[in-house]
Amino acid sequence: MLIVVALGGNALLRRGQAADYAAQRTNVATAVDAIADLAREHDVVVTHGNGPQVGLLALQGEAYSVVSPYPLDVLGAESDGMIGYLLDQELVNRFGGQRQVATLLTQVIVDADDPAFATPEKPIGPVYEEAVAKQLAAERGWTVTRDSLFWRRVVPSPEPRSIVELGTIKLLVDAGVLVVCVGGGGIPVVVDRDGRLTGVEAVVDKDRAAALLAEGLGADALLMLTDVDAVEVDYGTANARALADVTIDELRALQLAHGSMGPKVDAACRFAERTGGLAAIGLLSDAAAIVDGRRGTRVCGEPADARAETPDDANAGHP
Asked: Which of 76, 125, 264, 315 is catalytic?
């Protein structure tokens, strides 16, 4: 199968963990263990989150007041390069030259008038205690919201519309290359009337971009790996129950937080609905078992008999 593996930002940097190099290097090695298991039997394309890392870069940038802070699209590109480098190097070392690996900075087109720009909801950066988060919001003009037991900064997260470098990714996949791409949901850009690309101040949701990528590549499966075993009904309560094989309607009926499991479930449903392929959510270390049907939450859909556009049309890249 061709599998798009979406690594959650919290799988690469765990909640509450110090955002230092050593921790990320260790977590990347764990992620590559899971990827390597899949890559022995399947073709794999890897994408990843960058919420903790892009937020850290923003904080570091604010500490240097000589120049204006860099915009989020540039910080996204920086974080993609950092995480991509760590993943790429670990994959090359793991395969010992037996598999070609490439990391590609990827631009994702969004609409300039997307309503998300007026309603920030994408968590980035480290977690804070409530009092600290609200103080930072007052001092820096941030929007903050609750994230599980903590609080985080949130920024606009417009809908991903198309992937500029999709054709290049297809060429690499067809050549047997394991590609790391669309990191952090891709670098958000808009297209002007002359067809020119310009970065925008936002962070695209990684899971929705991964679903768009998987559809555009004609992937058989979309695997979203994070720091939880499965999607749960009544999460965080004594009645919590993990879901295994479910229908799209069952997933759609769940009431989930926008900033955590919600986008993953939405991405899973989108991919399953539009392609009929397998979409799954689960623990990073369970990757192979999730594909085999022994772990995680899995959903399959029936592709529509007639669609207004094919995945290639919907995802054609730079117009």
From this structure: 264
pLDDT of residue 287: 93
Domain 2-110+159-314 CATH superfamily: Acetylglutamate kinase-like (3.40.1160.10)
122 is catalytic: yes
Q: Which two tokens stand for residue 22?
A: 């050593």
| Active-site residue (options: 9, 49, 55, 185) | 9
Which of the following is catalytic: 27, 55, 76, 122?
122
CA distances from 203 to 1, 76, 281 (A): 30, 7, 21
Share of residues in the chain with pLDDT > 90 (%) = 61
Structure tokens at 318: 């730079």
C-beta pairs of 75-79 under 8 Å, 24+ apart in sequence: 76/50, 76/183, 76/184, 76/185, 76/186, 76/187, 76/188, 76/203, 77/105, 77/187, 78/54, 79/50, 79/53, 79/54, 79/183, 79/184
Active-site residue 170, yes or no?
no
Segments of 86-186 assigned E as strands: 101-104, 107-109, 122-128, 143-147, 150-155, 162-163, 178-181
Contact (Cβ atoms closer than 8 angstroms) between residue 158 and residue 189: no
pLDDT band at 133; cut points 50, 70, 90: very high
The residue from 8, 10, 185, 296 that is catalytic is 10
Residue spans of the domains in the chain: they are: 2-110+159-314
pLDDT reading at 76 higher than 80: yes
Q: Is 9 a catalytic residue?
A: yes
Active-site residue flag, 134: no
